[in-house]
Amino acid sequence: MLELNGIKKSFGPVEVLHGVDLTVRGGEVHALLGENGAGKSTLMKIVSGILQPTEGTIRVDGQERQFADYDEAIEAGIGIVFQEFSLIPYLNAVENMFLAREMKTRLGLLDTRAMRNRAQEILRRLDVSLPLDVPIGRLSVAEQQFVEIAKALSLEARILVLDEPTATLTPSEVEHLFKVMRELRKQGVAIVFISHHLEEIFEICDRITVLRDGNYVATCDVADTDTDRLVEMMVGRRIENSFPPKPAIAKSAPVVLDCEEVQLRKDGPLSSFQLRQGEILGFAGLVGSGRTETALAMLGAYPATRCKLRVNGTETRFRDPAEGLMQGIGLLPESRKEQGLITSFSILQNISINNYGKYRKGHWFIDLKAERAATQDAMKQVRVKAQGPDARLDTLSGGNQQKVVIARWLNHQTRVLIFDEPTRGIDVGAKAEIYALMREYTAQGHSIIMISSELPEVIGMSDRVCVFRSGGIVATVEGDHINSEEIMTHATTGRTRNVA
Amino acid sequence: MSHEATAGRGFDLRRMIHSPLALPLIGLIVVSVLMGFASDNFFSVSNIFNVLRQVSIIAILAVGMTFVILTGGIDLSVGAVMALAGTIAAGLMVNMGMPGWVGLLAGIGVGVVLGIFNGFLVAWGRMPAIIVTLATMGMARGLGLIYSGGYPISGIPSWISWFGVGRIGIVPVPVIAMVIIYALAWVLLQRTAFGRHVYAIGGNELAAKLSGVKTQRVKLAVYAISGLTAALAAIILTGRLMSGQPNAGVGFELDAIAAVVLGGTAIAGGRGLILGTLIGAILLGILNNGLNLMGINPYMQDVIKGLIILLAIYIGREWR
Ligand SMILES: Nc1ncnc2c1ncn2[C@@H]1O[C@H](COP(=O)(O)OP(=O)(O)OP(=O)(O)O)[C@@H](O)[C@H]1O
Ligand SMILES: [Mg+2]
Q1: What is the ipTM of this complex?
Q2: What angle do CA A121, A123, A125 make, to 5 degrees?
């Protein structure tokens, strides 16, 4: 159905795709795999006409096509859901789906009824129900994703590209998405699926194409391969066990951060937790269970009704994250694009943005040389793939942008880090390295609160886990109790039990 | 043109062309050459200093404006604040018999206080900058007229004229002041953490805040700087007019904004260079001067200037 041959793409003097082939058949889910910066998103932008290839051909149904822009690709039946969404938060689902393609009545007015009916029809086809009258910004990430898919389908897409759709979803939402994808596959739609979660590939995909550094490596059937072989194809080497061993943390280790009580909403549950020196405290729970809000509330970035905090024993109240930073507490927010990065800045400026105390000259001025040296080290540490420290953030691949935010904090002299979905969009190889760096950080006597929707990550990394449910902590588990059954039970049924 | 071919040379042509300063500079050169053809007098040393002296006030107002616009804000009050600062300075000297330097310091104080007022309402009051500074503009203008009864206040010590028309060697004092203020602004924006934070807020305020930048303080500071530069411009203006003029500087805020935007700064914030603003201000000044030298009627001049600004921004839009 879709056939790419020898696709090359250069940005200025730099070639990022060196002749890639890809064939996708109708009624299959085709995985596109590769490390961060391998060129997956770039290739998909070429397929959907957003970028033009420097060389190579695109065939749709055997016919050679050239797309000058996204609209022409849509005409040819191609739809894409971007790695970074493109919905308008103030508009509702129907308005978003028909944006710029509004249906009109004979008088030229908006035909809201027809659009609504069509939207409902498509959502029914996906077996999804969501509120149609609410601004999309208030829907969950998963719901927004379904709106994106519905939008592509409303344009009669027969080839659907999903660029890391599962990165922001919880396991049950992923299940739902897979159900939708199976339904579409049955209807003959060709789907290209990008993900860094290999287990998902095995669950949903039929065939796999692997890219490495902009080169085509291989295409194979899912049935003929396994995780180790895939990783080797992607990375070029084997990756050992990704989680570093957990150190023994004394029960008597001093409490560095004591959240005595926090209440997110009026009449909501009260919760409390303690963070000990040298530990990684996991925050698990479903999306919307209050993990992120609790973290933000501690730093004064979310208006909680109550929040009583002790830092190293002294009662403290932060009015904004800058005050938290002065006490050595840093936050890596969950959404890199909206909350983490300044995309018009270079890598260098993004890493040092909150850290000018580190490189000063004559008290007032920035020591540009020291700043550059430190940035280069930090980039190497997390292996940011880019042209150099001066590359602008918007020329980096999604995973590499995430690495920059991580590098910012590992380069900082904090004592407590709050990591909200730290490995979102990061490839398998780099993940292992980031886990090792997190342990290195705690080994220096610092502590981490890690909020994560990836259960294996929570289980593999946390010394203790606070499980959240509807706005509060329902259980804190440690030791052997850190396993998926127990965490999921608490997260979904919320039996209050404290294993301390 | 391959990368290696250019990187080896002493200067990197590709980088120069892609610098945000390239376009304003080209504009400046083109307009200067055109004016040179239109009037023999244009390239004389005395005319050049004359142009620079004339642009100095707008150029200094535009420094504060650049800081504010880089954070994604706007300051419509600078013209009125300048007039109020000059009027109060002159009033203190003439009506209260205070020494000249006290009056000037008080003028600077007026500018900074009004800037802090703006900044406080924008940063802590979370009010839109355009509304806050529009209100301040009206209030400052009104206060100046009330204080002076609507008439210029003259009779200030004669040495104050040095700020407006004095020279050091052959260089006019306002030009020297302008250069020093731009140099300081450059250091502040390019070499200090504060400067980076200004850009960061314009680039993504939420991300800056969550990463621990004191966004509210930085915003307060940029409006205070804008008030300060308005007051410094007021000193030069007072020296030039030898009086406090409550009606001075009407519409200067728009010229200052035009200078910033002509200089390549994004009106939405986050991107831009202070040197661009200087070029933009000089470009505007040359247009004024040249159109004057050509003897074009002042109403027509406004129309031509407006068209040229639109043209410049149109050409520049892809570049940014
Ligand atoms: N506009 C651009 N200018 C310059 N380089 C770019 C631009 N866009 C992408 N690149 C480079 O192209 C390469 C491939 O990026 P791409 O976004 O396709 O990676 P990816 O495989 O999707 O990675 P990820 O898994 O992190 O999303 C990267 O090295 C990136 O830095
Ligand atoms: Mg990508």
Answers
A1: 0.82
A2: 70
